[in-house]
Design a protein that fits this description.
323 residues, alpha/beta, Glycerol-3-phosphate (1)-acyltransferase, seven-stranded mixed β-sheet, two-stranded antiparallel sheet, 12 helices, 20% strand
Length: 323
């Protein structure tokens, strides 16, 4: 069921796009559909048995994912990861992808999901102006969405939909009633669509641990900050923070950690309140910089707390580009 990124030589070169943007799903639709059929018809315990050969396959035959997993785990764990660590990392990713089926079908009954900070979300929504929720490629966003669906929370995800078109198609097939609101970023009218959703009192979710292709290519260098992350400087985009500041909305931090087995823990925290940004340009920039640093600090803490949950299997620190 898991899909891993694989480099495609016919797509744009590294200097033209972000590393993750030039990767495509490594799987095929038939295999995904078979796994989905097993998950739906034979149940989660049977489907989870297949995660072991799937994880072993990617560990043996996906050198890019294996290499970048090793680089990340070395930093998060504080020691050189062994084969067991890398296998556990890939198995956690496969398990989260599998659970997307159950969460898409409204399957909170199949999983144990604890929520912390839910009252913060409700208090924010009571203001009637909407808010941004910023997360990362850590744990499961679907767990967050499933909680929102169960509580009738208006959530729209801002994303590049083309990077996971295959798995999204399979999810739509097994859960036809699934209506995940998606605002496609990087297209004309994206900002207006986000503003309109907020004006209706909705929540807008973004993931902040990948640079947009245009920014990585150099057309938006002013939006990039290099900050220490797990002991090594890494580049983070300030775009989500600038957008929240420009639209004068609160910014919450969100995460759905996978704790193993059938357990998930959803957390919401206040990250920054841009409802009334300072009039002075320098003060606004300082406010934005503080919010970005707070985000990176939270992400780093989570990577150390739950190291097998971070699923950026690309060259995050740009080590392949170094001479």
């Amino acid at each position: 069921m898991a899909t891993m990124p694989e480099r495609d030589p016919n797509r744009v070169r590294p200097e033209q796009a972000a590393p993750w943007a030039e990767q495509q799903e490594r799987s095929n639709r038939s295999a995904l559909r078979l796994m989905a059929w097993i998950a739906v018809n034979l149940g989660r315990p049977v489907a989870r048995l297949l995660l072991h050969p799937i994880s072993a396959y990617f560990l043996l035959f996906s050198p890019g994912a294996r290499r970048n997993s090793r680089r990340y785990l070395r930093r998060a764990l504080g020691h050189a990861p062994g084969w067991r660590d890398r296998y556990r990392h890939l198995h956690a990713f496969s398990a989260v992808v599998l659970d997307r089926i159950y969460l898409a079908r409204g399957g909170l009954k199949d999983l144990s999901v604890q929520v912390h900070g839910g009252d913060l979300v409700y208090r924010t929504l009571e203001q009637g102006r909407g808010a941004f929720m910023l997360g990362a490629h850590i744990g499961s966003f679907e767990a967050l969405h499933a909680v929102g669906k169960g509580e009738q929370l208006p959530v729209a995800m801002v994303m590049y939909p083309d990077n996971a078109r295959m798995i999204q198609g399979v999810l739509q097939a097994v859960a036809p009633e699934l209506k995940l609101e998606i605002i496609a970023i990087g297209r004309p009218g994206s900002t207006l669509a986000i503003r309109d959703w907020l004006e209706r009192g909705g929540l807008v979710g973004l993931l902040g641990d990948r640079l947009p292709p245009s920014v990585a290519a150099g057309s938006g260098r002013q939006e990039v900050r290099e900050l220490p992350f797990l002991g090594t400087p890494a580049r983070f985009g300030s775009g989500p923070f600038r957008l929240a500041q420009m639209l004068r909305r609160p910014l919450l931090f969100m995460v759905g950690l996978y704790l193993g087995g059938d357990r998930y823990e959803v957390r919401f925290e206040t990250l920054a309140d841009f409802s009334a940004p300072p009039a002075d340009a320098a003060a606004r920039e300082q406010q934005l910089d503080e919010a970005l640093r707070a985000y990176v600090a939270r992400l780093e803490a989570l990577c150390r707390e739950a190291p097998y949950n971070w699923f950026n299997f690309h060259d995050f620190w740009g080590e392949d580009e170094r001479p």
